[in-house]
Specification:
Layout (H helix, E strand, L loop, with lengths): L8 H7 L2 H32 L2 H12 L5 H10 L2 H22 L7 H30 L5 H14 L4 H12 L2 H19 L15 H14 L4 H20 L1 H7 L7 H46 L4 H29 L5 H26 L5 H29 L5
């Protein structure tokens, strides 16, 4: 079978679809507020407490609910997905409005109450990711899923070109509460956009007393029993473990360069630019190289980025962040696309959520580990260690991809 040549028409076919455009619009709207708030949350806690560890825990709070991914993802297979997306986004917007009214970190809510809200924030993200993956799998041609997932990644990461700078500017001028308000409004608007989607969904059957747990477990069994999905998801989890550790070092990297914590916005912008670039090309690259080589090459790039971020020069760190933005999404896009292509529609929500748990939950472990190590250990040594670990993660994917290519008959 001849290789399908990458062409821009595949991206155009995705963008001509009304539902796809609305969906990507909702990602941009909610992602803008989330990107601004994610940066400001850490800076806000850092400036109030002076602790790098507590600042890193803002990221940890968002990732903790991923441990319940199979259970939360099962909700997407037991309810209609569009109303679920509308309700979760509207509810999260209301919660953030309440936190804004209270005053955020600077109020009686305090740092720990602020972190508790971010745990709920993360749980809502798990549910919406599962519902979105399932909704897209049934609405987009399987051949175009790689293009769509890449565009989604570009839309989600592309807002980092503006949102972190906007969030930092608002925080510097008026403090944290206005950024909370911005994030709340963005989720309400995203819920309104999801309400405009035109999709046909049937109701899902009710769950019996023991059915819910078994329903969630079936997604894990289906994922783990697939020999093509399992290596991609495991590699994604190990990569995100290293990414979480590296993310916890960002304030130490910025301090080593002699800048204030707000300079982290520039690093997020550089990473967002890299993710936009690879996202728009991911569909063509997946068709050209296959999921394993695409994922393995991306992980290898993140190894180079870690070395670059250990250097004491602004330009090297910014380039390293951009390279990390190019490499990190590859394994995530490859794994999600494989799930959507290989898993029957009625299982996609829980399998996608389980895959997200395996891939993203290690981020919380990495953040916690980084928060514990960032003060007693030189961040440059940690980054060099990450570089070596990422090469080891990439090697099996690249080796197995070469083996599969070599085993094909000449007619292939």
């Amino acid at each position: 079978m001849p290789t399908i040549k990458p062409t821009p028409t595949s991206v155009g076919r995705v963008l001509r679809d009304r539902n796809a455009r609305l969906y990507l619009g909702a990602v941009v709207v909610s992602g803008f507020g989330s990107s601004a708030m994610t940066l400001v949350a850490g800076v806000w806690v850092k400036e109030r407490t002076g602790s790098d560890g507590l600042a890193a825990l803002c990221g940890l709070a968002v990732w903790v609910p991923l441990l319940l991914g199979p259970l939360l993802g099962a909700l997407a297979d037991r309810t209609r997905r569009r109303p679920l997306l509308v309700a979760v986004n509207a509810g999260l917007g209301a919660l953030l409005l309440a936190l804004y009214a209270a005053g955020g970190v600077d109020s009686a809510v305090g740092v720990w109450g602020f972190l508790a809200v971010f745990v709920v924030y993360g749980a809502c993200g798990v549910v919406t990711d599962a519902a979105e993956a399932a909704l897209v799998a049934g609405a987009v041609d399987k051949e175009l899923l790689g293009d769509f997932n890449g565009l989604r990644m570009s839309a989600n990461e592309g807002v980092k070109l503006l949102a972190p700078l906007a969030g930092a500017a608002v925080f510097t001028a008026w403090g944290g509460p206005p950024v909370l308000l911005l994030d709340a409004v963005s989720f309400v608007l995203a819920g309104c956009v999801f309400a405009l989607l035109r999709v046909s969904e049937s109701g899902r059957p009710a769950v019996g007393p023991r059915g819910w747990r078994e329903h969630a477990a079936s997604g894990a069994r289906r994922l783990w029993g697939d020999p093509r999905l399992r290596p991609l998801v495991v590699a994604g989890g190990l990569t995100m473990l290293s990414s979480g550790l590296g993310g916890a070092l960002v304030y130490a990297v910025v301090e080593g360069l002699g800048h204030s914590p707000a300079y982290t916005s520039a690093l997020y912008v550089a990473q967002g630019a890299g993710s936009v670039a690879v996202g728009t090309a991911s569909g063509a690259l997946l068709r050209r190289f296959g999921t394993r080589r695409f994922a393995g090459a991306g992980i290898a790039l993140t190894s180079l980025s870690a070395v670059s971020q250990a250097l004491p020069w602004d330009a090297a760190v910014l380039v390293g962040c951009a390279v990390n933005g190019v490499g990190l999404p590859c394994v995530l896009i490859a794994a999600l696309t494989a799930v959507q292509r290989r898993v029957p529609g009625e299982f996609v929500g829980r399998v996608a959520a389980t895959a997200n748990t395996v891939m993203f939950a290690p981020t919380a472990v990495g953040i916690a580990l980084g928060a514990a190590l960032v003060e007693p250990v030189d961040h440059r040594l940690l980054l060099c260690g990450l570089a070596g670990a990422r090469l080891l993660i990439a090697a099996p994917l690249l080796r197995s991809a070469r083996g599969r290519t070599a085993s094909r008959p000449p007619s292939a």
